[in-house]
Amino acid sequence: MTSIRHNEGVLDAARDCLLAYGVRRTTLTDVARRAGVSRMTIYRHWPDVRSLVADLMTREWLRVVAALDLSDPVRAVVAGVRGLRGHPLWRKIVEADPELLMPYLLDRRGATQDAVLELLERAVGDPRKARAVLLVAQSFLVSAPTMLDPVTLDELDAELAALLEAYLE
């Protein structure tokens, strides 16, 4: 992953562009213009919009995760799912460019998933359980909106908590 620390302004500009236009309509030229840097500056760090978006997603999702209190893994996971589900960038990607998420659901883990797995392994003390918890959390994050009739997201989140509590006992 490109060093995010040195590129906060570019990532901020990319976030603004993605929220305004979506991934497919954002160009590196748009991001460079908004960041006040040259296109070559962007190309030195990211060869294309997808790699820039991957770093942006990692930064944004890890900010959500960093705010969680992992001393209570169940509450942390439910809060993380809610935080991501409500995140403006997540909502924009799901609404406008959901195919962007497919590789992370079907083909490979991303940097955020690796970081969350590491945190979960420490919190629950078992790598197998950490993976199972992450898989369950991902399904509630991605698919819960398809299950809303006749229940609410709050009710589904309560079921996620109950499921995790029973599993992690």
State mean pLDDT (0 to 100 scale): 94
Question: If helices are DSSP runs of H or I spanning 4 or more residues, what is the number of helices?
Answer: 10
Number of strands: 0
Compute the number of structural domains: 2
User: Which stretches are poorly predicted, pLDDT < 50 over at least 5 residues?
Assistant: 1-5
Integer-rounded radius of gyration: 17 Å
Q: Secondary-structure element order, as H and E?
A: HHHHHHHHHH
Shape: elongated
Sheet with the most strands, sense and barrel status: none
The CA-CA distance between the termini, in Å, is: 36 Å
Backbone structural class: mainly alpha
Strand share of the residues?
under 5%
User: Helix share of residues?
Assistant: over 70%
What does this structure look like?
This protein is an all-alpha fold and 169 residues long. 73% of the residues lie in helices and 0% in strands. The longest helix has 18 residues, at 49-66. The protein is elongated, with a radius of gyration of 17 Å. The termini are far apart. 28% of the residues are buried.
